[in-house]
From TrEMBL:
Keyword field contains Heme: yes
SUPFAM superfamilies: Cytochrome P450
Protein name as catalogued: Cytochrome P450
Principal cellular location given in the protein's record: membrane
Family (UniProt): Belongs to the cytochrome P450 family.
GO biological process, one term: verruculogen biosynthetic process
Domain of life of the organism encoding this protein: Eukaryota
Length: 540
């Protein structure tokens, strides 16, 4: 009986399986042939596999060297590459304007849904809907106004001073402090600043007192999967894959990572609730303390009270929590990468370091006089050093995909509706059409008096660490405040040198043997080092 049943099943199942396999194989072959020879983008150059499947880009995102890979590919294939069946990468400033400029018929690509932090709640960063984004940006924008920025100065200043204090902690008889892994220390600073600015209380990671340094690990590990998913449009487009993305994420996480992420979720939820309760308990404005004659608040203080100027709607607690987490994530890694990058290039270039110190010492009688504001923004060389660090070690070095909402032309190339397009930031920042010797750290390239107005304008057209347009970085003024203040204070007061045994850590060698500070791209970046030692410097 049993053998009869099996043979009966086999008689039916086998041909069905063969049929399904056969049809699938035909479907795969037809899809490949279509994508290679008949697709509207089939005439564009690019790696064969990328033309056939998005898994090619997904794989390179997984290696976290996608930005370096795109740079090499553009060198090989030219300014336009097909980097997925329906994806095109452009390496030109014309494309920057046509893709990211204001009022273009493009929106964030479907891959961004992967950045959605809560199940069904979008945030400012993840939303692909222009209407939703406009409303949300009007609300969050109130936490980044000029007046708001002024009110944050005290908090940032306090954390930067703590950062400086740590540099020569444990100094020996020769005055040189113990070696510091600057990626770690800069992350401590920027996470502390974001904790203080978002929730009104620093995480105190710098002091290593609070036991909250796991927050950094949690965010870095969570970013790994996001950095891959954002390059896999199927995760945003296919509802099933989108719903199971939490399970897919497990492939990128260890048990420790999961524990850290869970703890961060609980912590941020509790801090948001606590902050909202405080705000509710007081009349608006009652919790302001005076600093420099301006009201002192944190970002949640603004967000909790903010209303969309057009609709008068505010955010509910869940939405506030989502935005709070987004701000911690978006505002910490990015700024710490730029800071670590700038310190790496300053340590590598003692003449540039000295010139910067001279500028600062002429501008300020003592370190204590360094404060955000006009005097600091007039330090042009400091600005050039930061802009150059943001070019070389761009914290978001990959490609930020946008989807065409109609048939659309970029660089004269007709793209069907639904095509993902973008400009890879690392690649354009190292494009010789805009930057001579692009792998050389040269702040003078931003000085009109040295290279001329035209040349600076050319560079600026291809410099977009904060992205441009309506989806550009909302936190740019805050990042600028942190970067200028920290670098000014460090360079003003400290000598620095590499730890000789660890000098080569945290660097990468590109294909032609060029050495650079390594950024491991996972939408934002993970970095190591530089490993530096500091000593309080006397005044000549
Ligand atoms: C040097 C530091 C920073 C760099 C290089 C940077 C870079 C960027 C870039 C390239 C984008 C566009 C991303 C995209 O199109 O997908 C962006 C967006 C964003 N950034 Fe930053 N960022 C920095 C610091 C900050 C800080 C300090 C904050 C918050 C306090 C912040 C919050 C955000 C938010 C919320 C968005 C989404 C804006 C929107 O879609 O409207 N960033 N950033």
């Amino acid at each position: 009986m049993l053998s009869q049943a099996i043979s009966f099943d086999r008689d039916k199942v086998l041909p069905a399986a063969v049929l399904i396999l056969g049809l699938s194989a035909i479907w795969v072959v037809l899809t490949v042939v279509y994508r290679l020879y008949f697709h509207p983008l089939s005439h564009l150059p690019g790696p064969l596999l990328a033309k056939v499947t998005d898994l090619y880009g997904g794989y390179h995102a997984w290696t976290r060297r996608n930005h370096y890979h795109l740079f090499e590919l553009h060198k090989k294939y030219g300014p336009v590459i097909r980097y997925g069946p329906d994806r095109v990468s452009f390496n030109s400033s014309v494309a920057v304007k046509e893709i990211y400029g204001a009022s273009k018929p493009l929106k964030k690509a479907a891959g961004y849904r992967a950045v959605q932090l809560q199940k069904d709640t979008n945030n400012l960063f993840s939303s692909t809907d222009k209407g939703f984004h406009g409303k949300r940006r009007r609300i969050l924008g109130q936490g980044f106004s000029e007046q708001a920025m002024k009110s944050y100065e005290d908090i940032v200043h306090e954390r930067v001073d703590k950062f400086c204090e740590i540099l020569t902690k444990e100094a020996g008889g020769d005055g040189w402090g113990a070696t510091k892994n600057m990626s770690k220390l800069c992350a401590g600073l920027t996470f502390d600043v974001m904790g203080a600015l978002v929730f009104g209380q620093p995480f105190r990671i710098l002091e290593d007192e609070s036991g909250l340094s796991y927050v950094i690990d949690a965010i870095i590990s969570a970013a790994r999967s996001v950095g891959v998913f954002v390059h896999l449009p199927m995760i945003g487009k296919n509802e099933f894959l989108f719903r199971i993305r939490a399970i897919l994420r497990l492939m990128f996480l260890s048990l420790k990572d999961i524990k850290n992420i869970k703890s961060f979720l609980t912590l941020s939820s509790e801090m948001t609730k606590e902050r909202a309760d405080k705000e509710a308990a007081k009349a608006a404005g009652e919790d302001m303390t005076k600093a420099n004659g301006t009201p002192n608040k944190d970002i949640l203080g603004y967000i909790l009270n903010a209303k969309d100027p057009e609709t008068q709607e505010g955010l509910n607690l869940d939405e506030v929590w989502g935005e709070a987490r987004l701000l911690i994530i978006a505002g910490s890694d990015t700024t710490s990468t730029s800071l670590a990058g700038a310190l790496y290039y300053l340590a590598r270039n003692p003449k540039i370091f000295e010139r910067l110190r001279n500028e600062l010492r002429c501008a300020f009688p003592s370190e204590g006089d360094i404060w955000p504001g006009q005097k600091l923004s007039k330090c042009n060389y400091l600005r050039f050093v930061i802009d150059e660090a943001l070019r070389m070690a761009c914290p978001v070095g990959g490609i930020l995909w946008r989807e065409t909402m109609t048939d659309y032309m970029v660089e004269g190339i007709k793209l069907p509706k639904g095509t993902d397009v973008g400009v890879p930031l690392y690649a354009i920042h190292h494009n010789t059409n805009y930057f001579t010797d692009p792998h050389t750290f040269n702040p003078d390239r931003w000085d009109e008096k040295v290279v001329g107005e035209e040349f600076v304008a050319l560079g600026k057209s291809a410099w977009l660490p904060f992205q441009i347009g309506s989806r550009g970085c909302i936190g740019r003024p805050l990042a600028n405040m942190e970067l200028t203040l920290t670098l000014a204070k460090v360079v003003y007061s400290f000598d620095m040198k590499f730890d000789e045994g660890k000098e080569s850590l945290g660097q990468t060698t590109l294909s032609d043997g060029i050495l650079e500070f390594e950024t491991r791209d996972q939408l934002t970046a993970e970095t190591t080092g530089p490993f530096l030692r500091f000593k309080r410097a006397g005044r000549a």
